[in-house]
Every structure is written in C-alpha cells, then in structure tokens.
Write a structure and sequence with these properties.
It is a single chain. This protein has about 150 residues and is an alpha+beta fold. It has one domain: Homing endonucleases (Endonuclease I-creI, Roll), CATH 3.10.28.10. It is about 45% helix and about 25% strand. Helix 4 packs antiparallel against helix 5. The chain starts with a helix and ends with a helix.
C-alpha cells in the first residue's frame, strides 16, 4: 500500500528532525509577581535551526501546529542568514506525538518526552498553589533522564 502524501511529509519531517532538530525538556525560571520569589517549572521544546527558511515553513505546514520562526542574529562567522523554528509546551508535545512513529535516532527521546508529559501531568494547572511534590519529583526525574540521553 502506498503512503499518503501527509504520511510521506510527516516521515520526511521526522527524518529532518532526526538529523537537524532538538527535542528537550526545559527547566524555566520565573518570578512570582506578588512576592518576587523565584520559582521553576518544566516544559517541552522542539526546535530546528536552519539556513533555509522554506524548509522550516514546509515543516510547520506539514505539522499544522502553531510555531514561530525567528531570524537568528548573524555574526561575523555566519555566511548565511539562519532561522529557528520553535515549538513549545503543548505545541511541542503535539508535534512530537505526530512525528514519533517516523523517528529513528531521536525516537527514544521522543518517547521519553511523551512519557514525561503524561506521567508528569503537564496539563495540570495549580493556579497559585505549588505543584505537589510527587509531581515535581516525577518531572525532575524525566528532565534528568532526557539530559542523560543526549
């Protein structure tokens, strides 16, 4: 059976990300507006740096998920303009979920991120309450695990 065009584009996109992309869990620092206290949270990120803007636009169109493409500031060492395509948080999760079946090299990382999202309950919103310690510990474990996979 022939693959449909969407499957072919997703497979191509996964191959491109296998070679040029980065999947990771980020620990972000933020300051509480009310007290000025420094806190941390975890999130998922997928990004690709590339000097061909059309390729990044094709990837974004293929995935059909909102993402920003930014110009990277050129330096003396840079011959060509480079761009970065960034998927963050739930957008990154959805993109990784779409391409995971087609990944080769980064499949273990993708699966770790999908498990991190589910087991770390990243959909959980606590408002002003702190994250339960057991959830924080799960997220931190997956954060460290993915670092060791790199």
């Amino acid at each position: 059976m022939l693959m449909e065009y969407r499957d072919i584009d997703l497979a191509w996109t996964a191959g491109f990300i296998d070679g040029e992309g980065c999947l990771h869990i980020m620990k972000q620092k933020y300051k509480l507006a009310s007290t000025g206290e420094i806190k941390y949270t975890h999130t998922v990120r997928l990004h690709i740096v590339q000097n061909n803007l059309e390729v990044l636009e094709h990837i974004r169109d293929t995935l059909g998920i909102h993402a920003n493409i930014h110009k990277i500031k050129r330096s003396i060492e840079t011959n060509r303009q480079c761009y970065t395509l960034n998927y963050n948080s739930s957008h990154a999760y959805k993109a990784i979920k779409l391409i995971e079946p087609y990944l080769v090299r980064k499949r273990p990382e993708a699966r770790a991120i999908l498990d991190f999202w589910k087991l770390g309950k990243l959909e959980m919103r606590t408002g002003r309450k702190p994250l339960p310690t057991e959830i924080w510990d799960i997220r931190e474990w997956w954060y460290r695990k993915l670092q060791r996979m790199k």
